[in-house]
Amino acid sequence: MNLHAKLLEREAAGRPVRVVLIGAGKFGTMFLSQVRLTRGMHLVGVVDLNVARAKNQLKSAGWDANAYAAASLDDALTRGTTLVTDDADALIGAPQVDVVVEATGIPTAGIRHALKAIENGKHIVMVNVEADVVAGLAGGVRVRALLHARLGICPQGDVVWFLHASDEASGWPTRGFVRFGPVQMASRRGANAASGRLVGRRQAGVRRLRIR
């Protein structure tokens, strides 16, 4: 699948992928430098406890000040700009948002944001190795329990949880592609044989695993 072509199709149809970034630190700023140049994606919101720092990071990543001057989410959506705020819950819960990128580097915050995103039918991209170390595959099992207890099914259909993918220890239990009923967990990189055997065993609630 040509992701670039798919993004161009969404841009042409007026349906860009609407993204919220939580955490404007080192990795968040790396994303900021790329997303402004990626056609078919609209960064509708940046969340950080320090709003002034987040705006400085946007500036350092090459953004024009007018591009992140939205007064509200509706304003950002209407004008194709970006809202900078400290209210993560409001943006995670907004029905217009498609994807949440979690880059706080804080385990408790990352896990809470991930669970809230899944609960609200949002795809979640974890750029948070600390949260992955703490939660790992168990986080996905928790997601499935949450969906069945609170929602029955995910109201917006399939949701993908992309976990950290690197040579760090966090990736070993979850590298691959795991489906939890209506929820999917994925990462970009493969696993070694040992980790493949570990997560290949049938876990409670895990229906399918494909190691890449």
Question: What does this molecule look like?
Answer:
The chain is an alpha/beta fold. It folds into 2 domains: 15-103, NAD(P)-binding Rossmann-like Domain (Rossmann fold), CATH 3.40.50; 133-212, no CATH class. The protein has helices at residues 3-12, 26-35, 51-60, 73-79, 88-92, 107-119, 129-151, 193-200, and strands at 17-22, 41-47, 83-85, 99-102, 123-126, 159-162, 177-180, 183-186, 208-210. It has a 9-stranded mixed β-sheet, sandwiched between helices. Helix 7 links the parallel strand 5 (123-126) and strand 6. The radius of gyration is 17 Å and the shape is globular. Residues 148-156 and 167-212 have low confidence and may be disordered.
Poorly predicted spans = 148-156, 167-212
Q: How many angstroms does the end-to-end distance come to?
A: 16 Å
Order of helices and strands: HEHEHHEHEHEHEEEHE
Largest sheet: 9 strands, mixed
What is the average of the pLDDT values? 74
CATH architecture field of the largest domain? 3-Layer(aba) Sandwich
